[in-house]
């Protein structure tokens, strides 16, 4: 952990957006990191943050951030050169090039964008599941061009993928590999950024399509649940036990919180009973909790006993939005067991995961204080 006197200076790319605002809220007071630079598009650059942002959170903009001048997202822009880390909430249209430039300039980049998630040397890291993937950044530093001494990129997952893989990981840890997963999501409008989905499209409605979302859930899950290859240079993508995954994604008129209805089939026969599955959810602990990093939730999975939970409005604030809540565990007449899961898509689904990934990187010595 960095000493009290020298918190690591961090920049936020996409600081004016939905995810960027959460970064600012969550990092306003943080034991390891201090906000030092803000970046956004040329539309926002040159303006004081409080004058240009359409702040949507129910807390005030932190006092020391209000007057900060938003910069262009370039490593040589004012403030970024002194940073060790940048958190990125950039639109995917621009994230690829910008994040790469910050890595090349020897910054450590924690990204929410999809651009590098499939890269064979970039960890796709859900902090409650696969922090072991972080070690591959050593290989990334030497093999990606340009090679770096300190800089690297770590991404976090799609928000719905994150809400799914936490309970799936708990099940694989307790009962061995899964064979089949079916998930139907009901995703909040904040997942589409700001201004996102038009109110005329989403009020009084359900939209049964979110572009590329199903493919992301189906692909990302295996990279996250898989391990690191034996040479330590990449990811095994769960190849020895392939999981069949089918996702159906829907946009619903909820502000924050993605819900998933999940059915799973286990490789093992007989499969665990619903009672055993519930116990596995209750017993689940992960490395972020053992390391005691500041953003780790006390309970990574919160099991809710009531027959009508979890619900986004009631349960998205559990553990400050840093857990996955689950409920309705019951037999599945088609596969083995089914349940419902809920994630705060902008906290654990985005900003909280990036921050927790960075905290783990600090604790493990992958970021110099
Ligand atoms: N919302 C969510 O629940 C989740 C989002 N993500 C991912 O996180 C990222 C951010 O999403 P979100 O916050 O919702 O999106 P928003 O649309 O709300 O914010 C986008 C941000 O990117 C900036 N930006 C846009 N164009 C440029 C440019 N040319 N140069 C520099 N900055 C630019 C915007 O700045 P400006 O205000 O100046 O236009 C803004 O700060 C995306 O990649 C998204 O896919 C991942 C998981 C969950
Ligand atoms: N597509 C997600 C949010 C998102 O931006 O996903 P990704 O980071 O995988 O592009 C949603 O609409 O809820």
From TrEMBL:
<dbReference type="GO" id="GO:0004073">
    <property type="term" value="F:aspartate-semialdehyde dehydrogenase activity"/>
</dbReference>
<dbReference type="GO" id="GO:0050661">
    <property type="term" value="F:NADP binding"/>
</dbReference>
<dbReference type="InterPro" id="IPR012280">
    <property type="entry name" value="Semialdhyde_DH_dimer_dom"/>
</dbReference>
<dbReference type="GO" id="GO:0009086">
    <property type="term" value="P:methionine biosynthetic process"/>
</dbReference>
<dbReference type="GO" id="GO:0051287">
    <property type="term" value="F:NAD binding"/>
</dbReference>
<dbReference type="InterPro" id="IPR000534">
    <property type="entry name" value="Semialdehyde_DH_NAD-bd"/>
</dbReference>
<dbReference type="InterPro" id="IPR005676">
    <property type="entry name" value="Asp_semi-ald_DH_pep-lack"/>
</dbReference>
<dbReference type="InterPro" id="IPR036291">
    <property type="entry name" value="NAD(P)-bd_dom_sf"/>
</dbReference>
<keyword id="KW-0521">NADP</keyword>
<dbReference type="InterPro" id="IPR000319">
    <property type="entry name" value="Asp-semialdehyde_DH_CS"/>
</dbReference>
<dbReference type="Pfam" id="PF01118">
    <property type="entry name" value="Semialdhyde_dh"/>
</dbReference>
<keyword id="KW-0486">Methionine biosynthesis</keyword>
<comment type="pathway">
    <text>Amino-acid biosynthesis; L-threonine biosynthesis; L-threonine from L-aspartate: step 2/5.</text>
</comment>
<dbReference type="GO" id="GO:0009089">
    <property type="term" value="P:lysine biosynthetic process via diaminopimelate"/>
</dbReference>
<comment type="pathway">
    <text>Amino-acid biosynthesis; L-methionine biosynthesis via de novo pathway; L-homoserine from L-aspartate: step 2/3.</text>
</comment>
<comment type="function">
    <text>Catalyzes the NADPH-dependent formation of L-aspartate 4-semialdehyde (L-ASA) by the reductive dephosphorylation of 4-phospho-L-aspartate. Mediates the second step in the biosynthesis of amino acids that derive from aspartate (the aspartate family of amino acids), including methioinine and threonine, the latter of which is a precursor to isoleucine.</text>
</comment>
<dbReference type="GO" id="GO:0046983">
    <property type="term" value="F:protein dimerization activity"/>
</dbReference>
<keyword id="KW-0791">Threonine biosynthesis</keyword>
<feature type="active site" description="Acyl-thioester intermediate">
    <location>
        <position position="159"/>
    </location>
</feature>
<keyword id="KW-0028">Amino-acid biosynthesis</keyword>
<dbReference type="InterPro" id="IPR051823">
    <property type="entry name" value="ASADH-related"/>
</dbReference>
<feature type="domain" description="Semialdehyde dehydrogenase NAD-binding">
    <location>
        <begin position="9"/>
        <end position="137"/>
    </location>
</feature>
<keyword id="KW-0560">Oxidoreductase</keyword>
<comment type="similarity">
    <text>Belongs to the aspartate-semialdehyde dehydrogenase family.</text>
</comment>
<dbReference type="GO" id="GO:0009088">
    <property type="term" value="P:threonine biosynthetic process"/>
</dbReference>
<dbReference type="Pfam" id="PF02774">
    <property type="entry name" value="Semialdhyde_dhC"/>
</dbReference>
<feature type="active site" description="Proton acceptor">
    <location>
        <position position="258"/>
    </location>
</feature>
<protein>
    <recommendedName>
        <fullName>Aspartate-semialdehyde dehydrogenase</fullName>
        <ecNumber>1.2.1.11</ecNumber>
    </recommendedName>
</protein>
């Amino acid at each position: 952990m960095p000493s009290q006197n020298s918190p690591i200076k961090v920049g936020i790319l996409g600081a004016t957006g939905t995810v960027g605002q959460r970064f600012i809220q969550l990092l306003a007071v943080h034991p390891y990191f201090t906000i030092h630079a803000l970046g956004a598009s040329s539309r926002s650059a040159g303006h004081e943050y409080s004058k240009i942002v359409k702040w949507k959170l129910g807390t005030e903009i932190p006092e020391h951030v209000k007057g900060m001048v938003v910069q262009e997202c370039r490593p040589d822009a004012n403030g970024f050169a002194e940073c060790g880390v940048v958190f990125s909430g950039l639109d995917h249209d621009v994230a690829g090039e910008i994040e790469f430039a910050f890595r090349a300039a020897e910054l450590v980049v924690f990204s929410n964008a999809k651009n590098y998630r499939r890269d064979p040397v970039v960890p796709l890291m859900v902090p409650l599941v696969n922090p072991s993937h972080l070690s591959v950044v050593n290989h990334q530093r030497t093999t990606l061009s340009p090679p770096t001494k300190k800089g690297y990129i770590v991404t976090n997952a799609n928000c719905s993928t994150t809400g799914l893989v936490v309970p799936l990981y708990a099940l694989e840890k307790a009962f061995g590999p899964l064979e089949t997963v079916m998930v139907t999501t009901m995703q909040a409008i904040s997942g589409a950024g700001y201004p996102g989905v038009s109110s005329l499209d989403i009020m009084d409605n359900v939209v049964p399509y979110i572009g590329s979302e199903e493919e992301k859930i189906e692909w990302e899950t295996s990279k996250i649940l898989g391990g690191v290859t034996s040479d330590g240079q990449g990811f095994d993508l769960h190849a020895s036990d392939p999981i069949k995954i089918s996702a159906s994604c829907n946009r619903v008129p909820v502000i924050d919180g993605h819900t998933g209805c999940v059915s799973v089939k286990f490789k093992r026969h007989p499969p665990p009973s619903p009672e055993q599955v519930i116990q596995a959810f209750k017993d689940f602990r992960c490395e972020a909790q053992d390391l005691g990093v500041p953003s780790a939730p006390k309970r990574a999975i919160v099991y809710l006993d009531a027959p009508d939970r979890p619900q986004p409005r009631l349960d998205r604030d559990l553990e400050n939005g840093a857990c996955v809540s689950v409920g309705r565990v019951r037999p599945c007449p088609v596969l083995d067991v089914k349940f419902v899961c809920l994630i705060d898509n902008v906290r654990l689904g985005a900003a909280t995961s990036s921050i927790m990934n960075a905290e783990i990187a600090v604790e493990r010595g992958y970021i110099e204080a």
